[in-house]
Amino acid sequence: MEVWKGLERFVSQSNTAYCYSLVSEWRERGDRGRPLGTLPLGGTGTRLPERFDKLEVETLLTGDIFPAIHESILKRFFQETAEQVVKIDGMLKAAEHQRTAGWYLSFFAPYYECLYAIAKMQAFYRDHSEGFHLVEPKAVWKLYTETAWEMDRFYRQFHTAFGASLKDSNVVLEDKLKGATDYVKGSTKTGSSKN
Predict the structure, then answer these.
(1) What angle do CA 143, 148, 154 make, to 5 degrees?
(2) For a surface tag, which of 13, 73, 155, 181 has the fewest beta carbons within 10 Å of its beta carbon?
(3) What span, in angstroms and rounded, lies between the C-alpha atoms of 110 and 169?
């Protein structure tokens, strides 16, 4: 694969199983005692984050051994959201797929939960693109109790996850998520967005 080209000197075939086992065990423990920036996983010599940024999300979803894979996926979707391009299906697939990933609970759960909520809010807008033209209180209440409450749930879910992300923020994702947050706030006021 092209992403690994030039990294041959960093690979020790005889130690591959041991290294994978060591990283996998540490990853599964959920040890938050060491910040991601200090990990020897994809350091500056390998420029893995830049390499991952060049890959399609579909390709990135096939691996999760490096935290930079998650950062690449998330920052891409958050940046697109800030630019009012919300790829509902891709975002839902990434969020749902990554819930079983090794680094999910340790470092990325709030970010993927934000991603999931953004996609669900956008799907709600898409499914109700004709708008709500109700003036009678009973009709408004009926609509809310049948379907519109879902939008409130996703909005609260987003803000809960956003708050959790602030408690232990990721410097790579922080600004990108804030840009997506501006979009969420704006789109919930206007009810309009792009797909």
Answers:
(1) 170
(2) 13
(3) 10
Range 45-62 average pLDDT: 88
Cα gap 95→113, rounded to integer Å: 7
Given phi > 0 = left and psi -120 to 50 = alpha, else beta, which region is 42?
left
Q: What's the gap between Cα 15 and its chain centre?
A: 32
Contacts of 177 (CB under 8 A, 6+ apart): 74, 78, 111, 114, 162, 165
| pLDDT at residue 182 is higher than 60 | yes
Q: Count Cα atoms within 13 angstroms, Cβ side, for 55.
A: 23
For residue 111, what are its two tokens?
């970010």
Distance between CA atoms of residues 182 and 63, nearest Å: 30
CA distance 150 to 128: 12
Count of Cβ atoms closer than 10 Å to residue 150 Cβ: 15
- The token pair that represents 102 in the structure block: 């090794």
Which stretches of the chain are DSSP H helices?
A: 16-29, 48-53, 57-60, 67-82, 88-98, 109-127, 137-143, 149-167, 174-190
pLDDT in the model for residue 56: 93
